[in-house]
Amino acid sequence: MTPILSWRDQHLTHQSFAEQGVFAYPTEAVYGLGCDPWDCVAVSNLLAIKQRSWEKGLILVAAHIDQFDFLIKNLTPKMRATLNKTWPGPITWLVPHQNLLPIWLTGKHPTIALRVSAHPVIQALCSHLNQPLISTSANLSGMPAAKHRLQVQKYFGKQLTGIVSGQLGKLKNPTEIQDLMTRAYIRKTH
User: Fold this and answer.
1) Does position 114 have pLDDT exceeding 90, yes or no?
2) How far is CA 33 from CA 67, 71, 81, 155, in A?
């Protein structure tokens, strides 16, 4: 059985990163899968577990906008104001990555999906680790995203380092995704 972990659990926060661990955690609407985004082996493990192609790219979540400063410091003042106005919150923005990120995060895209989440578990994890995390829905590609811990266990069994305890947020659907440059919606919540 996959262990249920608190974000304060040293096994989750430090050992799992050192061992390329992949863990599930509650987000605004569904369970997400996460790992250290800077570790190619960890991200490869996540993609293999999820059966997702690297070409699609991934979402990064953070506790505060400063964790994305290296990516957004060259944006126009208007674009930065938009991010500041909507974060922390349930909006994921596509932002030009300016070739500052590894291909295992961006896939084949010129942008990266970023969100500063207001969800308390994500806030706690990213604050404690002092860095962003991967956030992709906890499901096998093409299957519905897990909304219950037991569904996460059914999908992944013992392939995960653990499942972080906590409640899902109040959203019925995963966060909306919008392109910061064009304002086009990639995914709407309703």
Assistant:
1) yes
2) 19, 22, 29, 12
